[in-house]
């Protein structure tokens, strides 16, 4: 879900119907139930040709924008995997989301997105939707 008229790596914080925040709290809401840790993993080959870092036709390096977009896509794949797991638990949010990465073998590495799956109290009704932050407004419209 890409926000309109934004940079390609900007995404709303609502993924798979789950609100994702890097903070330990969501302003105006409290945690009703802690469901546990969730994680998502994106594995990548260190082969520069297979991952698109090197142009197959010319053998030269792809531009910085292409390389950046490939790395951002890897992180969002991990976040999407994490939120799919949270949704299976019945969570409506993941709080304290973080990234980690490691080399698995000489030719593979992983990017991990992890956080705490929770169920939040319903959003306050006294805040007009138009005045809420875009991701928060989107998340509360669906409830």
Mean pLDDT: 77
Task: Assign the CATH class.
Answer: Alpha Beta
User: Count of DSSP E strands?
Assistant: 5
The 3D shape can be described as elongated
Can you give me a brief rundown of this structure?
The protein has 143 residues and is α+β, with helices and mostly antiparallel strands. Helix content is 24%, strand content 31%.
Question: What do these coordinates show?
Answer:
Belongs to the UPF0145 family. It comes from Hamadaea flava. InterPro entries: UPF0145_dom_sf (IPR035439), UPF0145_YbjQ-like (IPR002765). The protein has 143 residues and is an alpha+beta fold. It has a single domain (14-141), classed as 2-Layer Sandwich (Translation Initiation Factor IF3). The chain is built from two helices and five strands. The chain has helices at residues 64-89, 134-141, and strands spanning 14-15, 18-20, 31-45, 93-103, 108-120. The chain has a five-stranded mixed β-sheet. A hairpin with a 4-residue loop joins strand 4 and strand 5 (108-120). It is elongated and about 55 Å long. Residues 1-12 have low confidence and may be disordered.
Provide key terms for this protein.
143 residues; Translation Initiation Factor IF3; 5-stranded mixed beta sheet; 2 helices; 5 strands; disordered N terminus
Task: Record the SSE blueprint.
Elements: E1 14-15, E2 18-20, E3 31-45, H1 64-89, E4 93-103, E5 108-120, H2 134-141
Parallel strand pairs: 2-4
Antiparallel strand pairs: 1-2, 3-5, 4-5
């Amino acid at each position: 879900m890409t926000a309109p008229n934004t940079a390609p790596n900007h995404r709303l914080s609502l993924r798979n119907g789950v609100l994702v925040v890097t903070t330990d709290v969501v302003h105006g809401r409290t945690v009703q139930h802690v469901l546990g840790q969730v994680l998502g993993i994106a594995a990548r080959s260190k082969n520069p040709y297979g991952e698109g870092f090197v142009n197959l036709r010319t053998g030269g390096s792809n531009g910085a924008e292409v390389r950046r977009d490939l790395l951002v896509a890897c992180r969002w794949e991990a976040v999407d995997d994490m939120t799919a797991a949270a949704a299976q638990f019945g969570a409506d949010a993941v709080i304290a989301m973080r990234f980690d990465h490691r080399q698995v073998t000489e030719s593979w590495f992983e990017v991990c997105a992890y956080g705490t799956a929770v169920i939040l109290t319903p959003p306050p009704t006294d805040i007009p939707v138009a005045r809420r932050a875009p991701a928060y407004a989107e998340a509360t419209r669906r409830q």
